[in-house]
């Protein structure tokens, strides 16, 4: 699980990353990153995904993946944005999409 100290929580932090970050897209997932400035990760799951139970499940899965690979991620502030269709994916498929986005952005350590 990703510790609370490493999560983006404030609206201003999300706004900064979205305005100044580099954007990468997967089919069911978008990724925005600002390199450097510590290591913090945020998650956005909109109402389009489903009701609260479904959104929380998707967010828990994304936080679980981020916690698993946290040591391999380079410093930066980043946001994972869930898109419609992610609610149908399994944990392994979400993990593959997130690792793919991190790899394309060059944010995974060897």
> How would you sum up the global shape?
globular
Q: Span from first to last CA?
A: 22 Å
Helix content: 25-40%
The counted number of beta strands is 4
Major β-sheet strand ordering: 1-2-4-3
Low-confidence stretches at least 5 residues in length (pLDDT < 50)?
none
Mean pLDDT: 95
DSSP helix count?
A: 3
Succession of helices and strands: HEEEHEH
Radius of gyration: 13 Å
β-sheet strand percentage: 15-25%
Largest sheet geometry: 4 strands, mixed
Structural class: alpha+beta
Summarize the structure in short:
The chain is of the alpha+beta class and 110 residues long. The protein is built from three helices and four strands, in the order H-E-E-E-H-E-H. Helix 2 (52-68) links the parallel strand 3 and strand 4 (76-82).
List keywords for this structure.
globular, 3 helices, 110 residues
Outline the fold blueprint.
Blueprint: H1 11-20, E1 22-25, E2 29-35, E3 39-44, H2 52-68, E4 76-82, H3 91-105
Parallel strand pairs: 3-4
Antiparallel strand pairs: 1-2, 2-4
Task: Give a verbal description of the structure.
- The structure is a single chain.
- The chain has helices at residues 11-20, 52-68, 91-105, and strands spanning 22-25, 29-35, 39-44, 76-82.
- Strands 1-2-4-3 form a four-stranded mixed sheet, with helices on both faces.
- The longest helix has 17 residues, at 52-68.
- The two termini are 22 Å apart.
- Helix 2 crosses helix 3 (91-105).
- It is an alpha+beta fold and 110 residues long.
- The chain has three helices and four strands.
- Helices cover 38% and strands 22% of the residues.
């Amino acid at each position: 699980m990703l510790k609370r100290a490493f999560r983006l929580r404030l609206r201003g932090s999300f706004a900064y990353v979205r305005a100044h970050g580099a954007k990468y897209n997967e089919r069911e997932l978008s990724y925005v990153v600002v390199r450097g400035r510590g290591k913090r990760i945020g998650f956005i799951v909109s109402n389009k995904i489903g009701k609260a139970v479904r959104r929380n499940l998707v967010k828990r899965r994304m936080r679980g993946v981020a916690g698993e690979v946290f040591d391999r991620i380079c410093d930066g502030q980043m946001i994972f944005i869930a898109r419609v269709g992610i609610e149908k994916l399994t944990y392994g498929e979400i993990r593959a999409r997130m690792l793919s986005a991190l790899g394309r952005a060059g944010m995974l350590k060897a």
